[in-house]
Amino acid sequence: MTAPDRIAEFTAAVAQTFTDGSLVRLKLGGYHGEEADLKSVEARRVSLKVGDRLSFVFRYKTTDITKNVTLDEAIGFLEQGLASGYRSARLETTGFDLQFERQNDKLRLKRTEVKGREAVEASHDRTKNRPLTDMSAPWLHALGITGKDGVVRNDAQDKFRQINKMVEIFAPLIQALKAENPRIVDMGAGKGYLDFALYDHFAKGTDRSLEVIGVELRPALVEAGNALAKKSRFAGLRFEAGNILDYDASGADAVIALHACDTATDDAIFQGIKAGAGLIAVAPCCHKQIRREIEAGTSDDRLDFLLRHGTFMEKQAEMVTDGLRALLLEASGYRTKVFEFVSDAHTPKNNLIVAQKGNAGSREAVLDRIADVKAMFGIKKHYLEGLLGL
Ligand SMILES: C[S@@+](CC[C@H](N)C(=O)[O-])C[C@H]1O[C@@H](n2cnc3c(N)ncnc32)[C@H](O)[C@@H]1O
């Protein structure tokens, strides 16, 4: 086979897999052309209003440039590029990888079969609307979201969807904060998925500087988080070891908590209220405290048709816990909203309580409602009430 045949074989595979939708990614490397700062080139298939295109991202030392081209234009570019400018190219598809190498006059092509790689949905809008777009970010790989190939791992799809959704929801809320350089404290940060995502998005997306602090009980996670923040050069992101309740959150503009266990969510809300944070947002986890209260207390007989079934009791405990949290936030001067941040197909713990400071209405009226709800469900005390001294 002659040298141009190898290039023709490679471009034919690109054309075939682009057309049948099995193209996952195309990468070009070993650039030795005239553009001194060009590091690498990557392309994916995208669906635009004008039709399907190959979206090339040219990565330069300090910036990325995206060009969406037709298949014919892409083939023309590849024919030229593989003959001179680039020494290597890799086509990744759902069924095989095709590696092209050029060393002086020698051209090599190696095909490797692959199994289990999923097709990439070619929706440009989805990518454009998703806040986290830089799939090569080292933190995504270090936290196990992307594989070595920069593609979201199958077992991390839900997590990736959740953090994107969170960033999407938090972005306008954080923008709305009056603080010039907002300080966000994430209580029960775990490995810090949300913190890295928020910082990544805001550090790139705006010229406001941002401080994100993850508070976490487990020192090993804190150490790992700080090392990764340093490696990622996220100067405003740090993790601190400690208990939510003992943390000094004064100066926080936003206090958030994603799946902090049971009453740790209340500890986070309390800290937000105590700090006078403009935004408090929590996605609660388990709801054991109120379930125990309902089980031990005497609820309105009319609720018996629900509460005698374990599954409904569980759901009621969840709703009552979070409904009371929303009311307690209102009694503390916050406007609240509770909504599902992702479908329950991705996580059953999908409710988000968002509270923004101001215009909360009459405290007395809210306290009366809280007393009514507690009496109805036979609840002596919501843990958060105790923290708030109510
Ligand atoms: C279910 S994980 C969620 C982690 C992270 N927010 C996320 O969504 O990926 C809950 C985390 O909260 C931490 N945690 C629980 N109670 C805490 C407390 N009182 N103080 C600090 N961290 C706590 C746990 O160690 C754990 O890492």
TrEMBL record:
Protein's recorded name: SAM-dependent methyltransferase
A single GO CC term for this protein reads:
cytoplasm
Among PANTHER family, the record links this protein to: METHYLTRANSFERASE DOMAIN-CONTAINING PROTEIN, PTHR13369
Source organism = Devosia ureilytica
GO BP term, pick one: methylation
Q: Which GO terms describe its molecular function?
A: methyltransferase activity
User: Which InterPro entries would you find in this protein's record?
Assistant: Methyltranfer_dom (IPR025714), SAM-dependent_MTases_sf (IPR029063)
Which superkingdom?
Bacteria
- The Methyltransferase domain extends over 158-292
Alphabetical UniProt keywords? Methyltransferase, Transferase
Q: Does the keyword Membrane belong to this entry?
A: no
Q: Which SUPFAM superfamilies match?
A: S-adenosyl-L-methionine-dependent methyltransferases
Entry annotated with the keyword Electron transport: no
